[in-house]
Specification:
heterodimer; A: alpha/beta; D-Maltodextrin-Binding Protein, domain 2; 2 domains; elongated; B: mainly alpha; globular
Chain lengths: 243, 264
Amino acid sequence: MAGLLLVGFCAGCGDDEDSSSPRLVVSAASSMTVALTACSPDFDAADVRLQFAGSDELAAQIRQGVKPDVYAAANTKLPDELNKEDLLSKPVEFTTNELVIAVPKGSEIQSVEDLGADGVKLAIGSESVPIGSYTREVVARLPKAEADAILANVRSNEPDVKGIVGKLTQGAADAGFVYVTDVNAAGDELRAVKQPADLEPDVTYAAGVVKGAKQPDQARAFVGGLTDGGCADALEQAGFGAP
Amino acid sequence: MRLFPVLLALALAAALTFLTLPVVAIFVDSSPAELIDSLGEPGALDALWLSLRVTAISLAIILVVGTPAAYLLATRSFRGKAIVVTLVELPLVLPPAVAGIALLAAVGPSGILGGAVEATGIELTLQTAGVVVALTFVASPFYIRQAMAAFAAVDRTLMDASRTLGASEARGFFRVMIPTALPGLTAGTALATGRALGEFGATLMFAGSFQGITQTVPLAIYDRFSTNFDSALALSAVLVAVSAAILLSVKLVHGSEALGGAPG
């Protein structure tokens, strides 16, 4: 919602300060906030305006006619869908992330098995957002009784990772599933509990140029820089993996 | 010559178009059939029922505590009254996100009163009780402000007459003040109800989002926004209809001055 307002707001402000370099609007998944904020000022071809929100929310905006130049999602499904609907160029897979269990630093939770115990309060992503569907994918790979116990402990289905992290740092929830990069970004407050490799979902990020983008050339350059360039380095530094 | 009235009319036309167009679009974009279908979806009726319940509970709290508090503020003058009134009204201008953070910092598990809340055995975050707290926090100033204005507008001689006739202040409060101020109190109730029904940010941040427990209609709309825009639209239409019905019924019961002309 804030994102929609932001786009609406800036559509109205027209050209301001720096008229020499074009403005590139990048809609990116919230999980890349730290990395992309760090590398965008170094993107020479344009003045980058970053817009962060849930990947699904940004996709919904594009479907409603909002036109950023670049769309970078926390999965491949949404960019593929937009590509099929002729709203996005062929998506480029540019990085990977890891789904982990996040717990407040003093927590005694050590493994996914502990999440089904009585009285454990879980905050996870809503089914409609990528983090939530990855979470359900992991839980579905567990034995049924264990999966049911975990789902029964869910107290909140949050619309984005920020909501999950906030509930954990404020002590409202005991554990949640987030990306490893979110745990890194939260500093000392959270600890990541990794899960066995056979449970780990394939979390691949993909980006593309939005059809009808005002700056298609710069947009292509920006997407290219996600795999090879300043932003690729920034992503690696934030804990993202190679595609 | 006649330019000024024309300008006034133009301003009204602009305001009316701007304010009604988005609301009209909700209804134009969703057919009645879709509207009914959307209510059949899992979670939609739960959200509606939860919204009505938590709104009713917070309204009860707001009325019981807010009415005497507003009466006191309207009828007494004391040092620092302006500060007290400002503090009471402050949540009116707080962004919902600030309200959510503030509630977490105050009565969340790690908040300054978190230990005290826990000691009572009441759980607020991620629970229905937390939604009630969020709604009460953001909606009560709407009622208290309106109620203060309504009490202040009551002719003092009415109350003085009842005191002269030997009635206690409590009796005067119930027999004279409340009936006389009733249109204003009702208007305040309607505004607070609308605000409570529409609360989003503080609820999400403080109470979370879980079907049947904390997911009110605005949260359910947001949850559907990305996956099912039509369904989000239809649920929005239901919320608009309920809110409009509340506004309208107040106007019908108390005449148009209850909401339009009340001072303050």
